[in-house]
User: Fold these one by one.
Assistant:
Number 1:
Amino acid sequence: MKKTLRFSLLSMLFMLCGTMMAQTVVTIDFDNDYQTLFPTLPGVSSSSSSDGDFTTATTSAAVQGVTVTVSEKASGSNNNRIWSSSPRLRMYSGTFTVSGKDITEIVFTDNGKFNMSTETGTLTDKTWIGKADEVVFNIGGNTQLKKIEVTLGGEEIDPSQLAKVLYTEAFTQNQGKFTIDNKFLHDSLEYVWKFNSYGAVASAYLKNTCYDSESWLVSPIIDLTNATEVSLEFTHAINNFASIDDAKTKAIVMVKVDNGNWVPLNGVTYPEALGWTFIENKIDLSAIADGKKLQVAFKYTSDDESAGTWEIKPFTIKGKGEATIEAEEVPPTPVASVADLVQLTANTANIELTLAGAQVVLNDGNNIYVREGNAAFCLYKIGDPLSKSLVNNAKVDGKLRGDFEWYNKMPEFKSNGYTDAATLNVVAVETEEEHAKPVATTLAEVGKHVCDLVTLKANLSRDTTGGNNTYYLEQENTKLVVVNNGKNLKALCDSDVVDVTVIGVVTTTKDGYQLKLTKNAIDNEAANVRNIEATENKQATVVYNLAGQRVNALRKGLYIINGKKVVK
């Protein structure tokens, strides 16, 4: 009896060991092993090379029982490719397939660009779980992978037991539900924190001068009462401090649990040297945050000798279970009209703008220019669904919360954690009579119409000196840069300066003003000529090319017609 029992126990141990041994994790590193993975490619792709493009129907690589397959691009998309810099594997369309025996988990490492979906298993927060010998991922847009880790064998994972994103802020457009607490701000500074494609950016360096400051970027209260295995993830880049050791005393991550005190967070990874390389941080907070209420703050300080730059993106809290956010409701500053908005003299966070009878004069994708009465402003990267509903000429009413900023003398309104598209009533106009009408102005007066739709008459010229390809409007010794797709402009002024009447929106650069043309915005005698042959007075029309030769049949180009230069 005892002998039988002993053999049964041994058999169970062997079975358990066999299961454990059968479960393996295979890492496929596209960044470092791309040459070994794809030896048939002649090289890597870059802005001047397509050697790393996948141009066959499928391209595969195999590592320790795992095969990955990248399909060719879909029609009209960029090629999927191995790029010249990290991350190497960059895909835009088609499919990405992972094959192997009993795949139970696939963990993707990317650089923030991840647009894939699948109909097999569960894909949550860049981790796939399930059980399959082949998983096909559909590439829905720009996806850049550094590596994948594939688990073969073992038991299928319960999705509810997988850590997931409980709260995140990208920081690339705004501060979200974070708040800024300026403990001390030098009189010469308007702000320390700003938000752009580099994330949350802190700096007290202005006009070649370092200023004293202490400013905190503080998260809302994150209620983790029903969460376990909590972790914090973010990347940051640190530069322009006196040294990396100096940065460690002036760029500090702080935490506060429940109603405790703020303390520095242990385990933060800093770069070995100053620079613009983003360093990953994945910090286990389970010992201090599981079942608690948590706040995290990024504390930036500077002095008159060292005012470095700290860039952070994105901020993510992960864990099992659920979290709720207790964002402190800060009453917004009411702004009654666009006319009042453009009278603000300083950047102002958390405002509530009232729009009444406003109209979109131009939506160019990233920027939406809105006029109300005689004032106009720019909605900067406001995001969906507003960017899609605010089409050209749409009428807009309602209240909108966000942040206001002067950028190169241009009034910009940016979204924040309180921006809600549902607070606006947007109506697309149906007739041309309802379209926004341009305001007549001169080049000398365009500064009075920033962000507004204007029309003016001037000379159009093209500057190609020194490799430039810049178009200008000129009027009474005043010069203005013109922004357009170039084709219409090139046809008009390749050979000479021409008189034009243009329609566009006045925008700004660091050097001054410019005019962003709208579609079909150029009008001159040349542009109005469509088909000379079809006119009734065809026989009376005398046409010469630029060589002085008389011609009868007109193709596209520049001609002398009855003594005037005309473009067909």
Number 2:
Amino acid sequence: MRTFFILLAVLLSVNTFAQYRIGGKVSTLSKNVLPGATVTIKGTTIGTVTDKNGNFKIENIEKSTIALKVSFIGYSDFQKEITVDKDISIDVVLEEKPVLTEEVFVQATRAGKQTPVASTMVKKEQIQKNNLGQDVPFLLSTTPSFVTTSDAGTGVGYTGFRIRGTDANRINVSVNGIPLNDAESHCVYWVNMPDFSSSVENIEVQRGVGTSTHGAAAFGATINMQTNTLRKNAYAEYSASAGSFNTMKNTFSVGSGLIADHFSFDARLSKITSDGFIDRGWSKLKSFYVSGGYYTEKTILKVNVFSGAENTYQAWNGIPSVRLNSDLAGMKLYEDHWLYSSTQTQEMIDSDPRTYNLYTYENETDNYQQDHYQMLFSHQFNPNLNFNAAMHYTYGRGYYEQFRADDDFEDYALQNVIVGADTITSTDLIRRKWLDNRFYGGTFSLQYTNDKLDFTMGSGWNKYDGNHFGNIIWAQYASNGAKDFEWYRSEGVKTDFNVYAKANYGLTEKLNLFADVQYRNILYSIEGIDDDLRDLTQDHTFDFVNPKLGLTYFANSNSKAYLSWAMGHREPNRSNFTDADPNGKQPTAETLNDLEAGYDYHSENFSAGANLYYMRYKDQLILTGEINDVGSAIMTNVDDSYRMGVELMATAKIVSNLVLDVNTTLSQNRILNFTEYVDNWDTWGQDAFEMGTTTIAFSPSVIANGQLTYSPLKNLGISLISQFVGSQFIDNSSSTDRSLDSYFVNNLKVSYSVYPEKIKEIEFHLLVNNLLNEEYETNAWVYSYLLGGQRYKMDGYFPQAGTNFLVGVNIRF
């Protein structure tokens, strides 16, 4: 807290160094003033909006040459280079655009300059420079409070992330305002969307509850992606990268530009392959993106079709800590305690301690394809009123294949096999677990803006229909099962209706009021049996009201302070329901009260900000060690828990070609009155331990990122990118025996561009990851048990690759 107030005092004092101001009026060719036009200094976050008379004023500008930019929906941007050595007055005239721009598709769900929300915008230029084949989470890894992980250790294949310690199934993700989270698991599996970042215009990350949007899991953070917008000129681009672990990426993109002043078409084709750092942790990924649009000065109609297909070898079991630490006695306990077979134990002992993979069956793979169809419509009734609507359909299908040794027939509802006088009760087999699902629906929003009021109302209706089933495709003993015998099937059907209204209202020239309320209704039913043959039939209904309220104070055009409160609710996901003990306490919805306060300051050469947050949870679902009626771990609601912290951000242009960008999160994350349950193998029951106040799992108290960029030549950039993540507990007991060590990782990024004749640009990239060869793990799981009066554990850690590199080239025509 002391650090925050010291920083606040420093930032406020910076204002005294600014000297000049720019003011003026924005109007149209027909001499109508434009209230609500955005006025910014290009290359900075300094800006303001025009008042009801079209007037604007930006103060505290240091002596320099700046690029002034003025924009308004439906009008062409105005840009002018201005030398600021005195107070300047300028009149700006905007011309109507021949076509409406696509920013309107995401405005309803995004946080504007006046919204009291902690947010970060990642633009296309930054995405392109860092996109050498790694998944979207790794492209966002330097944003505040963001921690990534990768099963295969390279950022290719299955990847995940947390924001403020909040796991991904509590984070809302949308594309063009359309929900992307799986309706049942609430997760986004980025491996199903390989190289999607090549078709993204920008990504906004809102931390905390954020503003109202569509879909489930808007609980701890929001990621809002916008796909490529209109490019008026035809283009073609080819990008390729290659590097360690036989990682390769090839992407080809083309676009027609604006045809006959109304039509545009874009397409992309991508392929990514990698062997992975972990043994057999390979990935084979491919995707495409096709888009077509019709544009007029008031209307846009656009259709997007994109698809991804993944084939990955499983690396999701992790590496036991006894293997990482080369603990021979501990590894032998895996066999002695019936955790591994003798063969599996010996394979672990003989393996490399940092690349070991339990799975050896040649086709222990995950296979999935997901197709997305979006139709987007926007119409501008007048400069102040805009309507958006979207329809969407997603079809996903796939399976993961497993070899199973010595499984009991009864586990598959099969009969024992009689051979002569012998009764065979188990068999080796190969099985596939399938998911076949469809997700469809529609959204709309209506936005009204004037000099004092920015009002949005919107609604969405979505339906999910998912089939879960399993087949045995081979067995040593067939029993009475037919070919491709199906041993379980269940169906989940979920409808989600939401409606929201939100407004920013200027109480005075400097003080803005924000109000937002959302209502959600969820109907969810499950029918059928699970893979353990349990009947899953159940129905659930939820009604949530999520209000938000805040104030933003603009001291001047360079700085603002804000205060906000928001409430969020989240329904349990599928596994919370299906894993629950039918005879025990059932999972209930979680509630979050989020209180945030922040301050931002921006100048041409320096910007900084601080955000304080206090997130109080009611009935948060966590792992306590409790099990259901068949011994599987379940998540249980805990009465009281919280996260609180401060996020500090700063960017400084040290000299003209040297820029430092840093952010740090300091936090405390606690469960009050936690009770841990541990399996007792001696009694075949569970022992309870009252732990008092403990730290929430996977919630480091310190997360820090830094990027130092040096540009010795106009077209050359060299960046040192660093991240420190403090130690984390991997369960909620706060035991150092079950934790991830802190790590400090440095990456080197070099980019160089040339501009030969007949080619717009050739851009070369070099990325050296883990420059200092740090040995570290970013994720883990653990299972604890009591045997002979002692506590033991079975666990899996996910090491990340040592020093590795990627080189790439982007050629733009």
Number 3:
Amino acid sequence: MLPNDSDPRTRRRPRPALLPAAALALMAATPGLARQQGTGALHGIVVADGAPVPYAAIEVRGASLRALADAHGRFRIAGVPAGQRTLLVTAPGYATAERTVRLEPGETEFLRVELMRAPLELNPVVVTGTMKETFVSESPVKVEVVTARHLQRNPSSSLMESVQYLNGLAQQVDCGVCYTNSIRINGMEDPYTAVLIDGMPIMSALASVYGLNGISPAFIEQLEIIKGPSSTLYGTEALAGVVNVITKDPRFAPRLALEAYHTSTGESNVNVAGARAGERARGLVGVSLVHRDRFIDGNGDGFTDLPLVTRGSLFGRLDVGTAERSRWRRGVLSLSARGYYEDRFGGVRGWTRADRGGSRVYGEHIETRRFELIGSLAPWPERGVRADFSYTWHAQDAAYGTTPFVATQHVAFANLLWQAPAPQGHDLLAGLTVRYQVYDDGTPATPTPERRFIPGIFIQDELDVAADLRVLAGLRLDHHDAHGVIPAPRLSVKWQPLLDTALRLNLGSGFRVVSLFTEDHAALTGARRVVIEETLEPERSWSGALNVNHVFLFGGNNMVVDVDAFYTRFGNRIVPDYDTDPDLIIYRNLHGRSVSRGVALSLNQNFREFPLLYSLGITVQDVDTERDGERREELFAPDYKATLGLSYTFGALTLDYTGTFVGPMRLPEYPPPYTRPTRSPAYSTHNLQGTWRPRTGIELLAAVRNLFDFRQGSPLVAPHDPFGPDFDTAYVWGPIHGRELLFGARVGLGR
């Protein structure tokens, strides 16, 4: 379909003038200059099937004006620039509606917006790409949204187990004994991924090792994923991308929710939550409990295939204020807190706590305690001012065989954001950030507690250059005591030549200061000796990503197609050298290059004539490092990974299938007599789940995970002599345990 000036869906908006920087700053500082043209107001109601739709999101495209309908579907937006305006209206479970209205100066226009139900939400509201609410289709940064319903297709007790079914993401298990795991994006190791909770970067360094296992999918509203550089907004650790965990909103959560299941591997999981929403305050409290005490040794190496775990977390959220007043947040004040405790063991049968740290019976025992506080304050939303803040305390007391690891970390973080007044077509966002971290692990890399005070400043401008062209440019400056000022620029371009086709280009730079013994588990387990050859400098990266998105309508059976190409080049990368000496792990900055490149394809489609949804994704990647003229593939980065999901509903019964297909990957090398293949075979895993809804608010489910019982051999080297010089735990490339059955139920009462 070609653009047509007579078609209101493809009609171009007037091109705003591109102003010099001095004039732009003057107009941003004097809001009156930006409002010389007349304004009006819009009010109305959002309905579906004749009934009001509560809390629908409304955006005036190109005017940076957003609102949220009240509990009765009513909304009002003042200060709308006169002229022809386009409104985008969306709500969970409904297809996005687009309305065009012409507004005269001083006029108030009433609109009645009809929404249609849609089994697949194609245009939800996200905040991750630009740090302010916007629709996925409008964002110049590509943001992938994973809904709670999608996560429920593979029920699990932690977020880490869910990401392996997402295209371009993978769960990397770093230790075959204690099952330390991490998130990879496009083949890049976990330290390059920033994990946020409600927009706050609180999962870093020590927390990234075991803390991610404590995030229960039962309390997740959606995941927002960016693949590509995001250090301009989120600072260090956002080189490969961002995973933003959005917790459940009390307004949309059941008043009482219960989820429980039990698996054939002995894992029991219970989640209970209660929510209450009033006109001025809204709150949610939930508790999650996980326990696994069954010793399983299917590969016969004498070690448990899955760690024995007791885990509990308590989560609470409180929003205070009138939701309709805020354009950025749903409440004027939002607070959430989480406490987390985990007791984890992996090792040989017969180990007791009396053997902790001793050499009689080998075991790895880890106790983790964590507390998080996250807040957002917007006392004057109409002025575009917001303060975000967080504090986390993380303590880990571990014994890996005879090696102790006792570490603590305190992180305080604050953002002061200002959505500055700007000329028509511009959307300015500026911010001051402060991060203070205290870290101590008692290892040779941290002889004294490490204290980092990192102030920063960033600014970005989102500009509507034309009706089909949007540009976002930003710059962040962080100051490190040891490394000085580190810049992180960013440029994003969105071109939409057709109504259903969009191209997005993202370019950026990132940086990261390494916490060595926290991030590389091999430095703590196994018998290799650690050598740090030089003072380790911060890692830097330069990245580019190109996305092409198209929606095929097919008579209402919408199919969304995404094609992505990505390229990241690292400088000063810290790559552990396992090859120079099989008895050593040598750490130094890379005096060469490290590159991650690849392409990805994803398809998502839902059908209206019959209740079928499917999604297909494949990522082909090449991740390598060049040192002294020799090119080596990245360890544990498969040549390709594909995911397939199918969902079909028969009345009250829904069947879900998910499958993953993983290509060969480079593996660690070991000397004789422990020589193993240095590349893994391609493999696949398949899951089936049935969900029966006998009545509203009740779901009964049964699932088979790893249907065909695929598993690799023992991930351990020399398991017969775990205290000896050859013992190693890092040879993990596929599932360690086999087929698993799951039975459970979900109950939600009232809303």
Number 4:
Amino acid sequence: MWRGVDRGRSRLALYPLLLLAVALAYQPAWRGGMLWDDEANVTSPELRSLDGLRRIWTESGATQQYFPVLHTAFWVEHRLWGDATAGYHLVNIVLHATSAWLFALILLRLGVTGAWLAAFVFALHPLHVLSVAWITEQKNTLSGVFFLATVLAWLRFDRTRSGRALAAALLLFVLALLSKTSTVPLFGVLLVLAWWQRGRLSLRRDVLPVLPFLLLGAGAALVTVHVERTFVGASGTLFSLTPAERVLLAGRATFHYLGRILWPDALAFIPPRWELDPREAAQYVAPAALLLLVAGLWQLRRRTRGPLAGLLVFVGLLLPVLGVTNHYFYLFSYVAGWWAYLPSLGVIAVLSAGAARLRERLPPRARTAAAVLGAALLFMLGAITWQRSRSFADMETHYRAMLADNPDCWMAHNNLGVVLRDSGRTSEAFEHLQEALRLRPDYGEAHHNLGAALVGIGRLGEGIEHYEASLRARPDAIETLYNLGNALVKSGRVPEAIARYELALRLDPDYGEARNNLGKALVLQGRIPEAIAQYEEALRRRPSFARAHENLAEALASLGRWREAIEHYQEALRLQPDDPSARKGLLEAQQRASQSP
């Protein structure tokens, strides 16, 4: 067993060292910008009020996933530093260092040798760059702190049978679940720890107290599965894996993560998506090898239960992402580095304990060399982490790093194309958007983005064709309907544009820009009263919509309703004081009104 007592500095004194090590390793990411879906997770404008905080807790779908503790943390952070990304990165660094420290305390409480080595390996391991350097994955670092604090509270309960300790553990677990539901398998981890310590499980002592954790986890898992399918989009033929395919996925993914822990050099942000084929006998090697590994460690349990316990913790915490349920990310890849954040604890604990026990058996002189070797290992891990963190500096750097790791990542080609288009590098943008469509011809988002790029340089016909191709892939894509309507107006195909705007508004009646542009299209057809009705409805839903006030004023002025037009021009200028067209329209309306009887 992994027994022994670590000697050395005070437990509290080592926390600043962990924090310093993490901060230095992640220094390139301190000022990294918003990446990929960060803007969808950091508190959106409509949720930044107190009522927005209420919605975070009470409305499923108000945030990308129902993790209200995480989004409350983001809400507070936005109050403190707004959109300045350095604050979010520093919070992630502190949370990660705290998790590493709690990990050491758990191992010390369990009497596991090499606890501090394990903590520093966890803190500096490059596998965790995707969790610490990416703002969105504060869900990992925050839930990790609550998860490990839950284990510590449980160990106190296990020793004292204190109801207060059990209540604390349950409360911390609820906070972990509401930060990220990858913490669901905690009940299994607690049972593994009980078995590891005592060599057997007692129904009364070990199993019954864990049942509340099982029930809480099951409830949270059901909510997450519903949100993934309903709001995130983890449904459809691409997610329809057969039972055999899920077995293949579980085996291959387990060894993928194990390999990345043991050899952390190849860490693609989005690894290539595997082809799972139950007809290929070779694909069963990984599941069979996993069963053999478990069987071998089971036979070893009479000598030491540690390696099997570590493997069970590793696989148990991975279980939610091993094909048991669908995840939206399966659209891009079946594996993701951030999914191994907590599972890596089991493997790191075993390896660190083994290294520490081996060092204890060495002659005194060799122990010094082993300590130097350990320090060199930590330095190497930190150096790789530092290097990988550089890819989180900005979106262009990030997507280019993705493509360096996985040149066939169609999502990265698409997103890099958008970044290049927005920075005015149109020819480069075309290359990447076209490559995204070559890799995935039915990629609706890439069709949309290529359409926008073509329209932007005046190639309206080609742009319209790509918008329509996008809608064939995504008939309910509201932004594409809106942009297609705009392109059709520019092409003089106003009736078709009106139809697209109306469809967008049936899907989202609050889409103010679509309603405003529908009004403008109706004006082009001379249907002024209908246009006025659309502008008024847009303003009823969004009274501060300056452009709708101005357009309504123009429509009213065209009917000679000067005084009403003046009111809306004035409101448009109050909202946008520097709008020259509204000022010109106001002066003309005032002049015409003064001439009217």
